Structures are given as structure tokens and as C-alpha cells.
Amino acid sequence: MKLLRLLCRHKTALGLGGLSLFAVVLLYLAKCTSEGLRPLPAPHGLPHNQPAALPPRGARGLQPPAALPSSPEETAFLAVLITSGPKYSERRSIIRSTWLSAAGRPPHDDIWSRFVIGTGGLGAEELRSLELEQSRHRDLLLLPELRDSYENLTAKVLATYVWLDLHLDFQFALKADDDTFVRLDVLVEELRAKEPRRLYWGFFSGRGRVKSGGKWKESAWVLCDYYLPYALGGGYVISADLVHYLRLSRDYLNMWQSEDVSLGVWLAPIDVKRVHDPRFDTEYKSRGCNNKYIVTHKQSIEDMLEKHQTLAKEGKLCKEEVKLRLSYMYDWGVPPSQCCQRKDGIP
To answer: What is the structure's pLDDT at 215?
Structure first.
């Protein structure tokens, strides 16, 4: 009874105390909720627009410049990138005097070209020879932190695209080898009619079995029992936006032994227009000579001279058309392993 009378006497004070306690609890809950809804801080190390080093792999990789250029230094419609080696000066000389001779002059004065060479680990004599060649022609893209070898070819191509995106304002890039012959006139004419966006143009393979030995051995390949569809590396074209994508993504790109296989994987998950063209004779050995060919791989110095002279005198590529292997049209409507049935009647 005493307790009841005491509660009744102080009921007003107790009510005010209860309301105060309830208000404190509400404020605490509101504070916790607002902190829980606050955005999480961005994870460290994700790329924005700053350059970053290429993924390390032994001697692979080219360190990027300390800061991005404020704007590209040059402009071009087509960038021609020819992978070469320190000792292949004769091949470069022949290319300059044959299929690349029209580049930089009207009507192809908007074609920019470079021979890409890794100079890491070279001796003094080899460096002097390259410096002399550069002083004469000004068309070498030298990568001083990359040792030039087949094992480093994927890193070399990626480093080239990184450099290109930083220093040149262009629409398309042609990657070719120094044993490749190109009909630049035909290539440029067709590119001018194409949209410079998400283009991946070449001779595609989708049923290539993963190599288990030799210089093409892919010991780290775990994606599939075949290579993913890719344009063969003797010569292909990609648009500038894809080059830009590769530069921004380079920290996350795995590098396999073959640069063309690697590019096929890098572009596999994105919305790309893949154009298979049998006029790109870019396999590991040539299919012969066809006057419709735009790009022909595995050409000797003599082959290049003959094709260039025949074009100049007769307006066609081949003295006589020769078929050494059948070609195919890529069937995008079937699984990649069934894509490529060789048939007669295809260039």
C-alpha cells in the first residue's frame, strides 16, 4: 500500500521520466540507422583515370608515364602498329618501301605508323643501330623496359595500346607483323565507311585447340577446352574505343602466351562487333595469293617486293592466283567448335 501511495504521489514525475527515456532511445536508433545507410568508402586500388603499371610477369610490362598527357600529341585516321624485333631492320626497310610507302602522303596523309620494338636488355651496339634507324626514319616505337621476345609479345602489344591511347587521337588501329603485306588503299577505303566504334575486324577462329607444347604452350589456360573466338594475329583492326577500354582495364587483364588469343579473351565479355573477313589471310601459314586479299601474313621479303611491283604495274596483287589451303566463313549461329568449315570458293 505504501508503495502504491508513493507511485500515485509521484506519477507526474515518473511519466515525464518515461517520455524522456523513450525520446533518448528514438534518437539513438535514428543515429544508428543513418550510419548504417551511409555509403561505404571506395575500395583502395581500383582504377579511375590514373595510369598504372601493366601486370608484372617476369620481364613483361612497360611502366606508364608519371601523368597523363593533357591531350594527344598527334591525330590520325588509322594507326598502323607493326610488331618487329631489334634485328629485323631489313624487313622494316622493305615494308617502308612497299605497302607502307603511301602512308603519310595524300590521299593517305592521315595514316600514322610505327614499328614497335622492345629494347630492354639490348647491348650497346644494337641500341646504337636502332638509334641510327630512328634518326633516319622517325618511325620506331621503342619500349625500353620490355625485353623483346615471343614470351613477352602479349605484354608488348598491350603496352603499345596503352601508349597509343595516351599519345594519339585516332579512329582505328591496325596491328600487323613485320612479315605481313597490307593493301592499305583498300583497307582505308573500307574503314572510312565504317563506324569507329566497337569494331573488331579480321580472320576469326573459334575452334583452336589449346596448345600444350612449343612456343604457343598455354599452361595457365583454364577457360575452356578451345580458345575463345579471336582474330588471328597476322593482322587485324580494332577501333579506338576498344584501345581505350584496354588501357583502362589493363590492371585486370590476364596475359596468355599468344597475343591474339589474349585479345580475344579481353574483348569476349563486352559488346563488340566481330567481323570475320576471309580477305584477311592471317593464319600461321598463308592460304596462297588471291587478288581479293587485303592482309597477307607470312610473306618473305621477296614476296612483298613482288606483290608491290605487281600492284604498281598491273593494279592487282598477284602475278598468278594460287590456292594453298581452303578458307572458311565463320558461322556465328553455331557453337564456336563448329564455326569454321573450310570450303572451296572462299578467298
So the answer is: 74
